TrEMBL record:
Every Aminotransferase class I/classII large domain range: 28-377
CDD domains per UniProt: AAT_like (cd00609)
Keyword flag Transferase: yes
Pfam families attached to this UniProt entry: Aminotran_1_2
Protein's UniProt keywords contain Acetylation: no
Keywords in alphabetical order: Aminotransferase, Pyridoxal phosphate, Transferase
Molecular function terms, GO-annotated: transaminase activity
Designated name of the protein: Methionine aminotransferase
Amino acid sequence: MTISSKLPEVGTTIFTVMSKLASDCGAINLSQGFPGFDCDPELLDLVDQYMRAGLNQYGPMSGVGALRQRIAEKSKLVYGVDLDSESEVTVVSGATEALYAAVAAVVKLGDEVILLDPAYDSYAPAVKLNGGIPVYVPLEMPDFSVDWEKVKTAITAKTRLIMVNTPHNPSGYVWTQNDLDTLAELVQDSAILVVSDEVYEHITFDGRKHLSLLTHPVLRAKTFVCGSFGKTFHVTGWKIGFCLAPPRLTEEFRKIHQFLTFGTVPPLQYALADFMSDPSRYLGLSDFYQKKRDLFCEGLKETPFVFTPAQGSFFQMVSYGHLSDEDDYQLAVRLTKEIAVASIPISVFFSDKRDLKILRFCFAKEEKELLDALEKIKNIKI
């Protein structure tokens, strides 16, 4: 049987490849972005409670009302933004679904979508599968900030959507107020909409605040904000996310969502709703992860890598271009095999696979695991 692939250039993701290699080699896996520890036992008890209460059938398509209300309360507490939980909040099966449904809701054949390069690997496929054309705008080195003049130049009469990400994966760059204001100026008098990936919203460092696009009045009216409980509560395998958008956009979003997954596991939603009644469970996340980032960065000072501490997310990038011309993918594979520590080569995030000689490590791990990894990294030969 001959099949004409819709994504002929797409293979198995680097995250799957490196995690499997780490497993095969018995390596410490600092590649794929998932916590190396379990969630709060109370959250597990709540899930058990609601499963045993018989809430195991289909839930509401838009999400359990109690959880949507908690999300709205969180948005008010953290960002000072009032959301209608009925018409502006949708619970979905992971932020990846939220991103896809948002793109599918508004992108038609021939529409152009601006992507800030490098970008998370699900963005471009979502655009292409819906007939859109990715238009890549390179971020500025070395901090991966946005050159807004380049974005402005990339906008054409066909531009339908701009996809953004803060805190940024893989770099950890956190947007400033100037970033929000400038984006608002570019889109306010146009039909251009925005998809904002904010899954690391509660993981920022050194006193930085995450500035959700919800907080800007112009952007709030034109943006799908996509978030995740997986990153916030250490339950990435649950695949529970949400989308926040004004009623007209939410209406179109839900039309797509209902035919992708329809709904998300109800007991998990009820458990999260109860768990979120204590805001400290997400408000303290930055401090929790900053300790891990600081520990990891302190150890990196004893290695030959060059780095700037991440501004947000739970990833730390390191540069080795001053040491070697070795391909970043080959180096990541070699280090996994030789010193038993897995990382991600940054080239996979770029549309043109450009190799800047940078690796990404995930520090969302137990302290002992980070210390063990650092001891191994100190012995690298590049």
